[in-house]
Amino acid sequence: MSKKTVFKNEQGFTLLELILCIVILAVGLTGVLSYFTQGMRNSSYAQNIAIATILAQDLMEEIKSKCWDQTATTVSPCSGAVTPSAIGPDGVETRATYNDVDDFNGLSNSPPKNSQNVLMPNPYNNMTVNTFTQTVSVCYVAAGTLNTCIVSPGTSNFKRIAVTISWGSVTGDQVQLVSVVTNH
C-alpha cells in the first residue's frame, strides 16, 4: 500500500495579524479623513467668497449707476453744476428710489436684497446656513487721501464707496470692494 502525502494549506492570517492590520488602517485613515474634512471646509469657504464677490459687484454696479450727488439729478443725465451735499438718503427715499451714490450710505441688509429692496433668491442653498450681510459706507475724501473720510461736504469732489459682504461669525469672513467716484 502506498502512503499518500497530504499537505495542509496554511496560508491564512492569524487573529493577531488581523487586529494589527485593522489598527494600522484605522490610524492611517484617520489622517486621510482629516485632510478630506479640511478640504471640504476650504471648498465651502471658497464658495462663500465667490457668492460674496458676486453680491458685492452687483451692489457696487448698482451704486455707481446713480448720479454723483442729489443736486445733479435735476439735470438729465446727471450733469450740470453740482454742489456737494449731505451724505445719506434725502427725505423719504427708499432703495428703489435712490438717485445718487451717497443715498446708499448706511445700507445694511441681512439677508441681501436687490435694487428693488426685495430679498434675493438663495443661489446655492448656502445663504440660509451662512447668512450674508450687505453693508455700504459712503463718505467724502480728499484727492490726496482717498482712504480717509472728511466731514465737510463742500470741500471735496470725491466720494469713497465701500461695499462689504460678510457672512458667518468670524470677523474676517467678508469681501469688500472700494471705489472712488468723482464729480468731474
Structural commentary:
The chain is an alpha+beta fold and 184 residues long. The protein has one helix at residues 15-64, and strands at 108-109, 133-142, 145-150, 158-166, 174-182. It has one domain. The chain contains one helix and five strands. Strands 1, 2, 3, 4 and 5 form a five-stranded antiparallel β-sheet that branches. It is rod-shaped and about 125 Å long.
Q: Termini distance?
A: 117 Å
Order of helices and strands: HEEEEE
Shape verdict: rod-shaped
Average pLDDT rating: 81
Low-confidence stretches: none
Largest sheet: 5 strands, antiparallel
Count of distinct structural domains: 1
Radius of gyration: 31 Å
Helix content: 25-40%
In terms of quaternary structure, the protein is single chain
Helix/strand structural class: alpha+beta
Count the E strands: 5
H/I helix tally = 1
- Percent of residues in beta strands: 15-25%
